[in-house]
Design brief:
alpha+beta; 9 helices
Protein backbone atom coordinates (compact mmCIF):
# COMPACT_ATOMS: atom_id res chain seq x y z
CA UNK A 1 0.00 0.00 0.00
CA UNK A 2 1.46 3.34 -1.05
CA UNK A 3 1.99 6.10 1.49
CA UNK A 4 -0.59 8.83 1.86
CA UNK A 5 0.15 12.09 0.02
CA UNK A 6 1.80 14.59 2.35
CA UNK A 7 0.90 18.27 2.08
CA UNK A 8 3.11 21.08 3.40
CA UNK A 9 1.58 24.54 3.78
CA UNK A 10 0.20 26.92 6.40
CA UNK A 11 -2.74 25.79 8.54
CA UNK A 12 -5.26 27.60 6.37
CA UNK A 13 -6.82 27.64 2.93
CA UNK A 14 -4.60 29.63 0.59
CA UNK A 15 -3.29 27.87 -2.49
CA UNK A 16 -3.46 24.45 -0.84
CA UNK A 17 -7.22 24.37 -0.35
CA UNK A 18 -8.14 23.36 -3.94
CA UNK A 19 -5.62 20.52 -3.57
CA UNK A 20 -7.28 19.38 -0.33
CA UNK A 21 -10.66 19.60 -2.06
CA UNK A 22 -9.53 17.52 -5.05
CA UNK A 23 -7.90 14.80 -2.96
CA UNK A 24 -10.93 14.64 -0.67
CA UNK A 25 -13.32 14.47 -3.63
CA UNK A 26 -11.28 11.57 -5.01
CA UNK A 27 -11.64 9.82 -1.65
CA UNK A 28 -7.90 10.05 -0.91
CA UNK A 29 -6.68 10.46 2.67
CA UNK A 30 -3.65 12.68 3.16
CA UNK A 31 -1.29 13.94 5.84
CA UNK A 32 -0.42 17.56 6.50
CA UNK A 33 2.60 19.43 7.80
CA UNK A 34 1.81 23.00 8.83
CA UNK A 35 4.35 25.78 8.46
CA UNK A 36 4.30 28.09 11.48
CA UNK A 37 7.65 29.87 11.29
CA UNK A 38 9.84 31.46 8.64
CA UNK A 39 12.64 29.14 9.77
CA UNK A 40 10.64 26.07 8.68
CA UNK A 41 10.12 27.63 5.27
CA UNK A 42 13.78 28.64 4.90
CA UNK A 43 14.88 25.12 5.82
CA UNK A 44 12.75 23.69 2.99
CA UNK A 45 14.44 26.11 0.59
CA UNK A 46 17.92 25.34 1.97
CA UNK A 47 17.29 21.59 1.67
CA UNK A 48 16.37 22.05 -2.01
CA UNK A 49 12.86 20.69 -1.52
CA UNK A 50 11.04 23.64 -3.11
CA UNK A 51 11.92 23.87 -6.80
CA UNK A 52 10.89 27.52 -7.11
CA UNK A 53 11.19 28.38 -3.41
CA UNK A 54 7.39 28.30 -3.11
CA UNK A 55 4.71 26.24 -1.42
CA UNK A 56 2.30 24.39 -1.73
CA UNK A 57 4.45 21.28 -1.55
CA UNK A 58 2.83 17.89 -2.12
CA UNK A 59 4.78 14.66 -1.72
CA UNK A 60 3.06 12.00 -3.79
CA UNK A 61 4.19 8.85 -5.63
CA UNK A 62 7.82 9.51 -4.74
CA UNK A 63 7.73 13.07 -6.11
CA UNK A 64 8.05 16.39 -4.32
CA UNK A 65 5.60 18.44 -6.36
CA UNK A 66 5.28 22.23 -6.35
CA UNK A 67 3.15 24.68 -8.38
CA UNK A 68 -0.56 24.41 -7.62
CA UNK A 69 -1.70 23.88 -11.20
CA UNK A 70 0.78 21.05 -11.82
CA UNK A 71 -0.21 19.34 -8.56
CA UNK A 72 -3.93 19.60 -9.35
CA UNK A 73 -3.44 18.29 -12.92
CA UNK A 74 -1.51 15.29 -11.62
CA UNK A 75 -4.14 14.46 -8.99
CA UNK A 76 -6.97 14.88 -11.52
CA UNK A 77 -5.24 12.57 -13.99
CA UNK A 78 -4.25 9.99 -11.39
CA UNK A 79 -7.76 9.69 -9.95
CA UNK A 80 -9.66 9.79 -13.25
CA UNK A 81 -11.12 13.28 -12.77
CA UNK A 82 -9.66 14.76 -15.98
CA UNK A 83 -12.09 13.76 -18.74
CA UNK A 84 -12.10 10.85 -21.18
CA UNK A 85 -10.19 12.51 -24.04
CA UNK A 86 -8.22 15.59 -25.07
CA UNK A 87 -11.33 17.66 -25.86
CA UNK A 88 -12.88 16.99 -22.46
CA UNK A 89 -9.55 17.81 -20.83
CA UNK A 90 -9.44 21.12 -22.72
CA UNK A 91 -12.94 22.00 -21.46
CA UNK A 92 -11.98 21.09 -17.90
CA UNK A 93 -8.86 23.25 -18.21
CA UNK A 94 -10.87 26.23 -19.46
CA UNK A 95 -13.44 25.94 -16.69
CA UNK A 96 -10.78 25.47 -14.02
CA UNK A 97 -8.80 28.50 -15.23
CA UNK A 98 -11.92 30.67 -15.11
CA UNK A 99 -12.80 29.52 -11.61
CA UNK A 100 -9.19 30.06 -10.52
CA UNK A 101 -9.40 33.70 -11.66
CA UNK A 102 -12.41 34.20 -9.39
CA UNK A 103 -10.79 32.29 -6.52
CA UNK A 104 -7.71 34.50 -6.77
CA UNK A 105 -9.89 37.44 -5.70
CA UNK A 106 -11.19 35.43 -2.74
CA UNK A 107 -7.65 34.32 -1.89
CA UNK A 108 -6.33 37.87 -1.69
CA UNK A 109 -9.37 39.36 0.09
CA UNK A 110 -8.16 38.73 3.70
CA UNK A 111 -4.90 40.54 2.92
CA UNK A 112 -6.54 43.74 1.66
CA UNK A 113 -6.39 46.78 3.97
CA UNK A 114 -9.55 47.49 6.01
CA UNK A 115 -10.45 50.57 3.96
CA UNK A 116 -10.39 48.49 0.73
CA UNK A 117 -12.41 45.51 1.96
CA UNK A 118 -15.86 46.84 1.01
CA UNK A 119 -14.68 47.82 -2.47
CA UNK A 120 -12.98 44.45 -2.94
CA UNK A 121 -16.10 42.60 -1.78
CA UNK A 122 -18.14 44.54 -4.35
CA UNK A 123 -15.60 43.48 -6.99
CA UNK A 124 -15.97 39.81 -6.00
CA UNK A 125 -19.77 40.07 -6.22
CA UNK A 126 -19.65 41.87 -9.57
CA UNK A 127 -17.25 39.35 -11.13
CA UNK A 128 -19.07 36.33 -9.70
CA UNK A 129 -22.56 37.43 -10.77
CA UNK A 130 -21.73 39.10 -14.10
CA UNK A 131 -18.75 37.19 -15.48
CA UNK A 132 -18.19 33.75 -13.96
CA UNK A 133 -21.43 32.31 -12.57
CA UNK A 134 -23.47 33.16 -15.71
CA UNK A 135 -21.02 31.05 -17.75
CA UNK A 136 -21.54 27.97 -15.60
CA UNK A 137 -25.29 28.55 -15.35
CA UNK A 138 -25.42 28.48 -19.16
CA UNK A 139 -23.10 25.47 -19.46
CA UNK A 140 -25.21 23.40 -17.07
CA UNK A 141 -28.46 24.39 -18.79
CA UNK A 142 -27.20 23.66 -22.31
CA UNK A 143 -25.29 20.53 -21.36
CA UNK A 144 -28.31 19.07 -19.56
CA UNK A 145 -26.22 16.76 -17.38
CA UNK A 146 -25.40 16.63 -13.69
CA UNK A 147 -21.77 17.55 -14.33
CA UNK A 148 -19.94 20.25 -16.26
CA UNK A 149 -18.07 17.98 -18.69
CA UNK A 150 -19.39 14.78 -20.28
CA UNK A 151 -21.62 13.06 -17.77
CA UNK A 152 -18.90 12.32 -15.28
CA UNK A 153 -17.62 13.94 -12.12
CA UNK A 154 -14.43 15.90 -12.84
CA UNK A 155 -11.88 18.35 -11.47
CA UNK A 156 -13.99 21.20 -12.90
CA UNK A 157 -16.97 20.22 -10.74
CA UNK A 158 -14.79 20.17 -7.62
CA UNK A 159 -13.33 23.61 -8.34
CA UNK A 160 -16.79 25.06 -9.00
CA UNK A 161 -18.40 23.79 -5.79
CA UNK A 162 -15.39 25.07 -3.81
CA UNK A 163 -15.78 28.50 -5.46
CA UNK A 164 -19.55 28.64 -4.93
CA UNK A 165 -19.20 27.91 -1.21
CA UNK A 166 -16.31 30.38 -0.82
CA UNK A 167 -18.27 33.20 -2.48
CA UNK A 168 -21.41 32.35 -0.47
CA UNK A 169 -19.44 32.80 2.75
CA UNK A 170 -18.92 36.43 1.75
CA UNK A 171 -22.18 37.01 -0.17
CA UNK A 172 -24.85 34.55 1.08
CA UNK A 173 -27.48 35.32 -1.59
CA UNK A 174 -25.06 35.23 -4.53
CA UNK A 175 -26.82 32.26 -6.20
CA UNK A 176 -30.29 33.79 -6.01
CA UNK A 177 -30.43 34.34 -9.78
CA UNK A 178 -28.80 31.05 -10.75
CA UNK A 179 -31.18 28.06 -10.42
CA UNK A 180 -28.87 25.67 -12.28
CA UNK A 181 -26.01 26.48 -9.92
CA UNK A 182 -28.29 26.10 -6.90
CA UNK A 183 -29.19 22.58 -8.07
CA UNK A 184 -25.53 21.84 -8.88
CA UNK A 185 -24.53 22.92 -5.38
CA UNK A 186 -27.07 20.52 -3.84
CA UNK A 187 -25.92 17.61 -6.03
CA UNK A 188 -22.24 18.16 -5.34
CA UNK A 189 -22.74 18.73 -1.59
CA UNK A 190 -24.50 15.35 -1.37
CA UNK A 191 -21.81 13.35 -3.18
CA UNK A 192 -20.41 11.01 -0.48
CA UNK A 193 -16.76 12.18 -0.63
CA UNK A 194 -17.67 15.87 -0.73
CA UNK A 195 -20.36 15.48 1.93
CA UNK A 196 -17.69 13.94 4.17
CA UNK A 197 -15.27 16.83 3.44
CA UNK A 198 -17.95 19.37 4.39
CA UNK A 199 -18.50 17.79 7.81
CA UNK A 200 -16.93 19.31 10.95
CA UNK A 201 -13.57 17.76 11.77
CA UNK A 202 -12.56 17.19 8.14
CA UNK A 203 -9.28 18.57 6.68
CA UNK A 204 -11.24 21.46 5.13
CA UNK A 205 -9.95 24.72 6.51
CA UNK A 206 -12.13 27.55 7.89
CA UNK A 207 -12.28 31.01 6.31
CA UNK A 208 -9.03 32.93 6.92
CA UNK A 209 -8.96 34.97 10.11
CA UNK A 210 -6.50 37.59 11.38
CA UNK A 211 -4.27 34.97 12.96
CA UNK A 212 -3.92 33.14 9.65
CA UNK A 213 -3.09 36.40 7.85
CA UNK A 214 -0.45 37.24 10.48
CA UNK A 215 1.11 33.77 10.18
CA UNK A 216 1.28 33.96 6.37
CA UNK A 217 2.89 37.40 6.45
CA UNK A 218 5.37 36.29 9.13
CA UNK A 219 6.47 33.26 7.11
CA UNK A 220 6.59 34.64 3.58
CA UNK A 221 7.13 38.39 3.83
CA UNK A 222 10.77 39.35 3.44
Amino acid sequence: MSAKPRLTYCNGRGRMEPIRWLLAAAGVEFEEIFLETREQYEKLIKDGVLMFQQVPLVEIDGMKMVQTRAILSYIAGKYNLYGKDLKERALIDMYVEGITDLMQMILMFPFSPPEAKEKNLDSVKERATNRYFPVFEKVLKQHGQDFLVGNKFSWADVQLIEAILAVEEKIPAVLSGFPQLQAFKMRMSNMPTIKKFLQPGSPRKPPPDERYVETVLKIFKK
